[in-house]
Amino acid sequence: MIDFLIASLTDGLLLGFVYGIAAMGLSLIWGVMRVINLSHGATIALGMFGIYLAFTGLGMNPYLTLPLLAAASLLLGILVYFVAVHRVIDAPYLSTLLATFAVNMIVIGIGTAIFTTSPRNVDFSLGSLSLGPITVTWARVLAALAAAVVTGLLYLFLYRTRLGKSIRAVSNNKAAAELMGIATSWVLAFSFGLGTMLAAISGGLIATFFPFTILAGGGYQVKGFVICVLGGLGNPLGALIGGLILGAMEGIIPAFMETSWVPVLEFILFVIILLVRPTGLLGSKT
Amino acid sequence: MALLEVNALTSGYGELQILWGVSLKLERGKLTALVGSNGVGKTTLLRTVLGLVKPWDGVVTFAGRDVTHLSPHAKASQGLVLVPEGRQLFSDMSVYENLEMGAFSKRARPHFARNLERVYEMFPRLKERATQKAGTLSGGEQQMLAVARGLMAQPEVLMLDELSLGLAPFLVLELFGILRRLKDEGLTMLLVEQNVQMALAVSDYAYVLEHGRVSLEGPSREVAQNKRVKAAYLGI
Lengths: 286, 236
Prior knowledge:
The complex is a heterodimer of chains A (about 290) and B (about 240).
Chain A: H1 2-33, H2 40-58, H3 62-85, H4 93-115, E1 128-131, E2 134-137, H5 138-160, H6 162-172, H7 174-179, H8 184-207, H9 217-231, H10 236-256, H11 261-276
Antiparallel strand pairs in A: 1-2
Chain B: E1 4-13, E2 16-26, E3 31-35, H1 42-50, E4 57-62, E5 65-66, H2 72-78, E6 80-83, H3 95-102, H4 112-122, H5 124-128, H6 139-152, E7 157-161, H7 169-184, E8 188-193, H8 196-202, E9 205-210, E10 213-219, H9 220-225, H10 227-234
Parallel strand pairs in B: 3-8, 3-9, 6-7, 7-8
Antiparallel strand pairs in B: 1-2, 1-4, 4-5, 9-10
């Protein structure tokens, strides 16, 4: 039993890293520009299909495709920002919410027309890794590693580079940043691109071990919101920790009850956090 | 020719007109003061000159070029730098990072090391607190950081909005001492102040703003001798 629990927990935690970077994308976009990005789920699905098409169509290794996917989704995010978000960036929250929801509907609509909603999977197996009692698939280990590397790079970028610091400056005080010569519109666009990139990468990683459809992103987006609230919106590290918590729950809960209880317990936790500590575990500002 | 020239500028918020045709000139290397009571449009004038508020009409000329409709970041990149009212620091970032962000523009970047040494020498407290978050500084230290951040931007024109607001008298004196020093070094400045007495004492030339219009201008010494100014602002 203990062995089984340890194995489930490990599985869940590895998955948690991947959830974590999807949530980090949401958190980053909210933190920098106070936009709740409802196109996040669609982007996650695009990431899944990006990896899927590169693998089935061109025979490309999913992990080697990731950097390409990252670059493409970064550009896509910048484009989406200028087309759909920028004109309503100073409008009330509902406007940006609806604008990103519209993007979501457009992507899913086109995706459904092209790919239908039948399930897909990336049939690329690397086998399993055994460490004592624990056996995990390489797909999950690599996904967690990739997510950890992405998190580390994101932190280095935000805290060590001029552009990254300018993102934090804009997030902190947009008017002051503009007065210091920072082109805030471009910084916002770039941040939206980064958030989109994180969503696409997490989607691409999820695709390496779970089957999916063009609609699958929605569920992960909701998980992303739960994770953000858990960790504290606007705090990337909190998003990672929230992701690990959610992943652990998804690993452990099925050992004791039906899998269908997982979302029930996740949302009970969500409500409790909202009641007890609405700023999240690591959140300081609202 | 004046370094910065504002000509018949009008602007406001929505339907509400605040500025009714303001003209002023900043001579190179001079400290110009813009004084007036609360709510006469001083801050709106600065915000309009910098493009944070859209000008309705009028022209802003900087170093001979029309910059009226440039974005605030483009103006900052050319050396029009504001130390805003209420400091507006990057409160979650360290003192050092605030100074780094001050030097963000291309024109300021090459001078980063020299400017950093200079502002640390002017405000030794900032050097001691370099790694501390700006939001945790005292009010006086925050104002010093705001000025230092502005200087890091390698300004051609430094505009200071309500520098003395909410500061203890000895800190006000210290900051005005810094202004004198910057003036001696040849920096062109526009000082916007409610503390009329201090502003007139330190500046070369002054404008008095009333109800969105310039009601009086002249060399600061003469403005300080004006009967109405004495009665209205200096309490003499």
